[in-house]
Amino acid sequence: MKLPGRTILLLLACTSAISAPGVSASATYPDRLIEVVVPFAPGGGLDQNARNFAQALALVLKQPVAVSNKAGATGTLGLQAVAQAAPDGYTIVFTPAVPLSSGPHRLKSVSYNLASFEYVCQVFDNIFAIAVTKDSPYQAMDDLLADARKHPGKISYGSSGIGSIPHLGTSNLENASTVELNHVPYKGDGLMLQDLLGQRLAFGAVLASSITGQIQAGELRLLAVYSDKRHPAFPQVPTLTEAGIPVVQLSFGGVLVPAGTPANIVAKLESACRQAVDSPPYRDWAQRANQVVDYQPGAMFKQRMQQDSAQQFTTLRRLGLEAE
């Protein structure tokens, strides 16, 4: 039977769609190397976390997984690169929340937003803390706040930079406690810790897991953590809320892919993410590094990101740091 020309064209169109590269790649995903972008410099805690996660992910997906660092502009350059990448599941980003939940509110140069990504999974929590030296007169948060009220604007603290999680969290602490502190921003924690150990700062607002060595050596003590739960490695340290200060500054992160990535690829990555996070090698590394593992599926990760974005916007607006 001779088919009408229009019917033949429709059949050819359907055949082409079925055999199109995007469709076949989606069906066989993954069949080649996957790139994991880390939006910060190599050597830091996030980079180590990403590399251990990538090793576990490669074993689950049975494909090579390579980590590349795209640092700059407090993580936003790396996220921008991934937002513009092909939505095929072969370029993913392993990131803390702040470049996405805070960056678009703070920097005019950022062209992505919450809708620029698909949310694969949450992998970790970063718990920040208030650290003092072993000789500090502050034994608890009450001591620090009492001194701050006696000397408004004179109590200096260090953070990893303006707009960083510890800066925003401490600003919320000031607001909730009606005290005024002197913020000294640094380009990372290294120089800040030198000044803290040299007693040129009253306290440091710092990632708790990054100062495990100094805590174990007795050089630093923790007064409180900014999270909604105690750090499992330091269970004796209260949260700010437990210390009577109604402030919670969460820091978490995980895996994103560009918006438009096919749903079946996102689902496969989400399943692989859960298996990688649960794998003994990754769990063993996290325990040694005092890294808090907190897997959440993509829907929950997205919800937390939306909530964090709203909180960051409120704080940035109060500080006059929002992009105009």
List the main descriptive attributes of the protein structure presented here.
single chain; alpha/beta; 11 strands; 19% strand; globular; disordered N terminus
Topology:
Elements: H1 5-18, H2 21-28, E1 34-38, H3 45-61, E2 65-69, H4 76-83, E3 91-96, H5 98-101, H6 103-106, E4 117-125, E5 128-133, H7 141-150, E6 156-159, H8 165-177, E7 182-185, H9 189-197, E8 203-207, H10 212-216, E9 220-225, E10 252-258, H11 263-278, H12 280-289, E11 292-297, H13 298-319
Parallel strand pairs: 1-2, 1-3, 6-7, 6-8
Antiparallel strand pairs: 3-10, 4-10, 4-11, 5-8, 5-9
Give me the number of helical elements: 13
Order of helices and strands: HHEHEHEHHEEHEHEHEHEEHHEH
Structural class: alpha/beta
Shape assignment: globular
Largest sheet: 6 strands, mixed
Mind telling me the C-alpha Rg?
23 Å
Mean pLDDT: 91
Distance between the termini: 67 Å
| Fraction of residues in helix | 40-55%
Number of strands: 11
Structure description:
The radius of gyration is 23 Å and the shape is globular. It has 324 residues and is an alpha/beta fold. The chain has a 6-stranded mixed β-sheet, with helices on both faces. Residues 1-23 have low confidence and may be disordered. Helix content is 43%, strand content 19%. The chain contains 13 helices and 11 strands.
